[in-house]
Amino acid sequence: MRVICRVRCFMPAQSIFVSCGGNPFGETSKEHPTYGDGFPALARMQAILGQEIGHYSDILRDSRGRQIGRHSANFACTRATPHVLQARRNDLKRCDIIATKLHEHGLGSLIKAEEAVRFYRKTKVVGFRFWYNLMRAWLCKQKLLIAAHNLDMAFVKRFAQDEYMGIMIRAMISDMKFNLEPVADVYKRDDKEAEEAIACVEALARVPQQVVKWGFLTTKAMMAGLYVIYYGEVIPSLIECYQEVTGKPYKRNYARMKQPFLYKFKKFFRKEPRPPRDVP
């Protein structure tokens, strides 16, 4: 079953349609809780929607809301905007620098111990090696958290709630670098400048997606340059365009959606635990 989500945009008669390849309102599989319907489909929908909203927001508009260009590149996506291009290059270097610093303070040892613990748990083998690696993983984790605090890397603390903190941090760094430099046949061009422009378009649009997946602290640390451009340039331009088109000041609605009493009652007695985050 495929569910398509529709999101209304600030421009009249415009919407974003997102397919998540499953039913986010269905039951989560107990045998395979990391894919299929339920929470996995909901997670996919949020991540894909974040990227599509990023692409929509990247479009430059005039006072009447007409499309006139992009923040990340020219309208034909053949030449990247200089400051976006430089920000993307700096963010790629920043990911490598942060990864190096974390490895210098024990990330590699933590990952090695966690992989051993995960292996013994999956094979249901409990013995001296299991307890040794479990203790080693705990000590490496505490060492890394202390180092992250001293290095002013507050985002690392967010991963402390994961079962395997080191493995998850490694997956995050890999995912950040992939989204800064996405690889696919559709992005390839004979003209290398045009290919880099496409990479800038994709990377800037994936900032809100990464915020959904890894949190704003992590994204702000790993993609600092593009993060500032997206939330300091792109979003304010949307607000300005909205005010020019509608003729009224933008005011964000912070009110929560009201839920019927019957829905709250059913939800209270039918709590579905979320599957823990894990990576292959």
How much helix is in the residues?
55-70%
- Average of pLDDT: 87
- How far do the termini sit from each other? 25 Å
Biggest pleated sheet: 2 strands, antiparallel
Strand order of the largest sheet: 1-2
- Tally the beta strands: 4
Kindly name the structural category: mainly alpha
Q: Residue ranges: pLDDT <50 for 5 or more in a row? A: none
Order of helices and strands: EEHEEHHHHHHHHHH
Number of helices: 11
* Rg for CA atoms: 22 Å
**Beta-strand level of the residues, as a percent range?**
5-15%
The number of distinct structural domains comes to 1
Shape descriptor reads globular
Write a concise keyword list for the protein shown above:
280 residues; mainly alpha; two-stranded antiparallel ribbon; two-stranded antiparallel sheet; 11 helices; 4 strands
Description:
The protein has helices at 39-57, 82-104, 107-122, 128-150, 155-158, 165-180, 192-205, 207-214, 216-222, 224-246, 261-269, and strands at residues 4-8, 15-19, 59-61, 67-70. With 280 residues, the chain is mostly helical. It has one domain. Strands 1-2 form a two-stranded antiparallel sheet. The chain has a two-stranded antiparallel ribbon with strand order 3-4. Strand 3 and strand 4 (67-70) form a beta hairpin. Helix 1 packs across helix 7, helix 1 (39-57) packs antiparallel against helix 8 (207-214) and helix 9 (216-222) crosses helix 10 (224-246). The protein is globular, with a radius of gyration of 22 Å. The two termini are 25 Å apart.
